[in-house]
Amino acid sequence: MPNAFVTKKTVLEPIGVIPREAQATASLRSAIESGAFETQLPSENELCQQLGVSRSTVRAAVQSLIEQGLVTKQRGSRTLVNMRVSQLKLPLNAGIGFWDLISQAGHQPSTKNEVVLEREASADIAENLECEPGTPVKVISRLFCADGEPAIYLEDMFLSSLLKKAPKLDSLPTSIYDFAEANLVSPIGYTIAELIPMASNAFTVEKLSLPAGTPLLHLIERHFQANDHPVVASYVWVVDEYVRFSVYGRKRREGVT
Amino acid sequence: MPNAFVTKKTVLEPIGVIPREAQATASLRSAIESGAFETQLPSENELCQQLGVSRSTVRAAVQSLIEQGLVTKQRGSRTLVNMRVSQLKLPLNAGIGFWDLISQAGHQPSTKNEVVLEREASADIAENLECEPGTPVKVISRLFCADGEPAIYLEDMFLSSLLKKAPKLDSLPTSIYDFAEANLVSPIGYTIAELIPMASNAFTVEKLSLPAGTPLLHLIERHFQANDHPVVASYVWVVDEYVRFSVYGRKRREGVT
């Protein structure tokens, strides 16, 4: 039987271009998620060799993985793989689109009732997009189903002026991240979501075909450019029966005295 | 008027002991949150000097801050501070106790009805704590109030065998992280929370003095040791009026081809 601490060789793609840290992190994450390391990462030296990067880059990449909870550094030099986190279903804070989340939850995703229209920003939307009320805003609304049943209704809103080209209904990407990348002048760097429990009202009864009073998780998501400006605001209503989000949180134990 | 890009000197405490990356990260975060850098971090060289650590440690620390969304690396060498994220209220994924979260939301926190008792683990609790059903489990239940009004009811559960000493009701730490550190054989390394919308039922009507049917956010939190074993399971019911959580999520754009 193979020793659980022996790692397979050549599982990591060498890194070619900048930014090296991010690529090293991605290469390591992908190897962890595929189970290549089983219980612990190879030594720093071995990682430098496999990835073809400096020790400094390897340390930065491992620090990223620690922040993401995928590995834990032990006293001494071992870096242990955390399978609970690397196999977490439905992580709300990992920047994954709803289509993929529904699929990860073990359901067959599909979309329905997709509509693209233009509105003038209400006071509420204007605040989320940081524009003047009345500014032209595009709204893409759609229903995500799980195994054919309504699971998530959402409205993605963005300034019409951010569009590089008119979105085509028959080839809308399923993830707002991919949509922004393909159609808007700026991609999405990060998201801040507010979590609001609610009882299904007339609006969601219509959109999700649910009995009034059914508990729903309402998310107000603001998607920002990497450093600052809002790109897209999403109003989302989620049926708990099909999609229940998890959040990974890390206790900050940085030990400053 | 001072140039926004000029940073104050000596805002960072030099780092003394291992693990250097984590301490450098903490020192930088604390300086960012206090507004010391305004819009961007000092250069790597300057950070090495102020923190008294190697370039490799500085790079690892900055990579941590990038993962946490506190800074963004621009093409070239600038590392910009993201004030939206560093001043985010009520982050669910930052490992902060409910007392501090209520306070951050602008309310005066207090606790009531604290009870410590012992139970035998139900099938449900046994699954969360990874023990046999019937194993002795300690339960600490309490009500957190915001400005004197019921805001969060919670039950923290852990194996009685994990206790180093009997907890004293009159000096219970307000955060489960502090409690575990002081009273249990192992501190909490990270948390995975499930987010469940619900309508107030007979149980929560009694515990939170709320009308039946009021929407609540129910969290099932599992707190783990740094690398693996469950330490504490918490069942939490949150009133949206006082405490509305946010989650920061980062789009993974690691650019691997």
UniProtKB/TrEMBL annotation, chains A, B:
GO biological process: negative regulation of DNA-templated transcription
InterPro entries: Bact_HTH_transcr_reg, Chorismate_lyase_/UTRA_dom_sf, Tscrpt_reg_HTH_GntR, UTRA, WH-like_DNA-bd_sf, WH_DNA-bd_sf
SUPFAM superfamilies: Chorismate lyase-like (SSF64288), Winged helix' DNA-binding domain (SSF46785)
Pfam families cross-referenced by the UniProt entry: GntR (PF00392), UTRA (PF07702)
Biological source species: freshwater metagenome
Keywords of the record: DNA-binding, Transcription, Transcription regulation
UniProt protein name: Unannotated protein
UniProt keyword DNA-binding present: yes
Classification via CDD domains: WHTH_GntR
GO molecular function per UniProt: DNA binding; DNA-binding transcription factor activity
Boundaries of every HTH gntR-type domain copy: 18-84
